[in-house]
Write a structure and sequence with these properties.
- Among the domains are: 122 residues, Serine Threonine Protein Phosphatase 5, Tetratricopeptide repeat (Alpha Horseshoe), CATH 1.25.40.10; 79 residues, Alpha Horseshoe (Serine Threonine Protein Phosphatase 5, Tetratricopeptide repeat); 127 residues, no CATH class.
- The protein is elongated and about 110 Å long.
- The chain is built from 33 helices and six strands.
- Helices cover 65% and strands 4% of the residues.
Length: 648
């Protein structure tokens, strides 16, 4: 942008009024002057395209004035749009430029409305539209698209509906594709999905943008069925709409569907970007399947988005392998990254934490402090979780104290959840209760849930009742809170209280979520529900379990009947325990997994004390490494012990 004056010096054009051109001299034909002026306009527009500072724009503006183009709406429109792009506030420079034009055309009006939309000043956008109509200038499609953007930015659906009515009354704009798309976008941003769908259904012409907007909106609302129906009806699918479906399934906890969609995307020959990869990596993390994890990692590297090339994908891969039970693979990725950011460190720290490697998590945290990467709130959640699972109360308290003092991070309710969990797991239930009741911000369900979980560990029904009373107010329909309180009462033998909780659940129409586990073998994933007898291999599974039980009893294993929260006889309790889903999954894996391989089981709820002891014994008599991922952490069972040290 240097020496701008030289760019215009080759075109010495006489000053002309755009509305009353002066007669050309005999030596300079008027047509030649017009031709030169067109060349000059084009050159100005081209230079404005590359202006990246306000000073550059002012230099070009000086040439616009000097060459008599200050009344040319085409040039001034581009000038206003460039100023808007650079973030120059609308009430200042752009408006002064606009006011100098005596007869602005519709596109210049639209540029001013668009500038207001970008700034989020809806009232100013409407003001310009009103002035334009008052002066008798008709709108163009860009006018309405800018107005809808302003309404969407300001979440003003009532005004948006009035503008919608204008497109109908004036006529000719309802069928405009660009106007229709921005109208849909406005309704969706304002939370009126049904209105957006109605506009879509009435559009005579749609493009992939129209479809994608609605598909993304349905995915965000959790309605993946409607999103899928729209997706299947779209004949020409681009990378963006495929990615919207993959990420939609992943965000709605439908990992298998996300992976299936991703495989179809690959089969269609559609290119990939980091957003699609992050979506499918998230799905693999939810599923906890190592074979999918390795497959996605290979695709990322082939596509140029490997861990060494893309720090976001690398960080997501660390998280994925950690959640798939492959902590060594996660750490190998971390070590191989050429660039690391706070997400990379936080993912690895969290991975160590949930796998019970507290010292490794804290060691990596201190290593991060020696780099230029500063911890954030997520980093501290990871390192405090590590302290919680290892019972490192003093270490956790010290780290919690440094958050605000040294890193300017105000503890959130999630951080207080970690601290309540830390104190509660360590048996300091009174301290945990006091912290929950006196913390400087409102305690959410996570805080009281952590305290309730600690009461289950230490069998304290009195404090559990206090925690549960808060949870019943904050999360009245969360069935898990009622079930946990019922289990705590059952462990204490307070069967009348168990009956009261179950009666409350019936009155609220709440039903206990079924416990299920899934296990990964060479044949894929196999899912088991508690008490399931319909599996085609059930007889073999039952026989394998009975044989394993006999071997464990020879080593001194005795079923923990207190793990059953029903007031039934011992024989029935024994039958219920042997039908727990993780035991069924273990037996299946012993039958069908590769000999000597690590057995990986995932469960949707916390593993019970009896199953925990059973897995310890099974790892000893079979010589297998057994990993169980429950909703709290990963348990690594080897040689008769678990790395949690019975502290979970």
């Amino acid at each position: 942008m240097q020496n701008l004056s030289r760019k215009f010096s080759t075109l010495p054009i006489p000053k002309l009024s755009p509305s009353h051109p002066q007669p050309a001299t005999p030596f300079t034909p008027y047509s030649e002057i017009q031709h030169c002026r067109k060349i000059l306009e084009h050159k100005i527009i081209t230079i404005l395209d590359v202006c990246n500072t306000l000073n550059h724009v002012k230099q070009v503006h000086a040439h616009v004035i000097g060459n008599g183009l200050s009344q040319y709406s085409y040039v001034i429109t581009k000038l206003v749009r460039t100023l808007t792009k650079l973030g120059v506030p609308m009430p200042t420079y752009p408006e002064l430029v606009f006011r100098q034009v005596l007869h602005p055309n519709p596109f210049l009006w639209a540029a001013m409305i668009r500038g207001c939309a970008i700034e989020g000043t809806v009232s100013e956008a409407v003001k310009y539209y009103t002035l334009m109509r008052r002066e008798g200038t008709g709108p163009v499609s860009f006018t309405f698209s800018a107005l809808f953007k302003a309404c969407g930015s300001g979440l003003d659906v009532n005004l948006g509906r009035q503008i919608h009515a204008q497109t109908v009354l004036i006529g000719g704009f309802v069928a405009d594709l660009y106007v229709g798309n921005t109208m849909i976008d406005m309704y969706l941003k304002c939370g009126f999905l049904d209105c957006g769908r109605k506009v879509f259904d009435e559009m005579p012409e749609r493009d992939v943008v129209s479809w994608t907007e609605l598909i993304v909106a349905y995915a965000k609302s959790g309605d993946m069925e409607s999103a899928r129906d729209l997706f299947e009806d779209l004949s020409l699918k681009d990378m963006v709409v495929w990615t919207a479906m993959v990420t939609g399934y992943a965000q709605n906890s439908m990992p298998k569907e996300a992976l299936d969609c991703f495989e179809r995307m690959r089969g269609a020959g559609v290119g990939l970007d980091e957003v699609a990869l992050l979506g499918v990596i998230s799905a693999c993390a939810q599923l906890g399947a190592s074979r999918y994890a390795n497959w996605v990692r290979a695709i990322a590297e082939e596509s140029g988005f490997g861990a060494t090339q893309n720090v976001l994908v690398g960080s997501a891969l660390i998280d994925m392998f950690s959640k798939c039970g492959s902590l060594d693979d996660a750490y190998n990725i971390f070590q191989g990254m050429k660039q690391r950011n706070v997400f990379s460190y936080s993912s690895m720290i969290w991975g160590f934490a949930v796998h019970g490697n507290a010292n490794a998590a804290i060691g990596l945290f201190h290593e991060m402090l020696t780099t230029d990467v500063r911890p954030n709130r997520v980093t501290f959640i990871g390192v405090l979780t590590a302290c919680s699972h290892a019972g490192m109360v003093d270490q956790g308290r010290q780290l919690f104290a440094t958050m605000e003092k040294y890193y300017n991070i105000t503890p959130s309710a999630d951080h207080y959840t970690c601290m309540v969990d830390l104190l509660g797991r360590a048996g300091r239930l009174e301290e945990a209760l006091e912290l929950a009741e006196t913390m400087p911000i409102v305690a959410h369900g996570g805080v009281w849930g952590a305290l309730l979980g600690a009461c289950r560990i230490h069998k304290n029904p009195d404090i559990a009742q206090i925690a549960a009373s808060h949870l019943f107010e904050l999360e009245p329909n969360n069935i898990g809170n009622y079930v946990m309180l019922s289990n705590i009462y059952a462990s204490a033998g307070r069967w009348d209280d168990v009956s009261s909780v179950r009666k409350l659940m019936r009155e609220k129409g709440l039903k206990k979520n079924p416990a299920y586990s899934w296990v990964e073998t060479k044949n894929g994933h196999e899912k088991f529900c508690a008490g399931e007898t319909s599996h085609p291999e059930y007889n073999k599974i039952k026989k394998a379990l009975e044989d394993l039980l006999n071997r464990l009893q020879d080593l001194g294993y005795r079923p923990n009947l207190n793990s059953v929260d029903y007031d039934v006889g011992d024989e029935e309790k024994m039958r219920i325990l042997m039908a727990h889903s993780e035991k069924l999954a273990l037996a299946y894996a012993l039958l069908y997994a590769d000999s000597g391989s690590t057995i990986k089981i995932a469960k949707n709820i916390r593993i019970c004390e009896d199953c925990h002891a059973f897995m310890c014994g099974a790892s000893r008599v079979t010589g297998r490494h057994i990993i169980v991922r429950d909703n709290m952490r990963f348990h690594h069972f080897e040689n008769g012990t678990c790395n949690c040290g019975n502290f979970w």
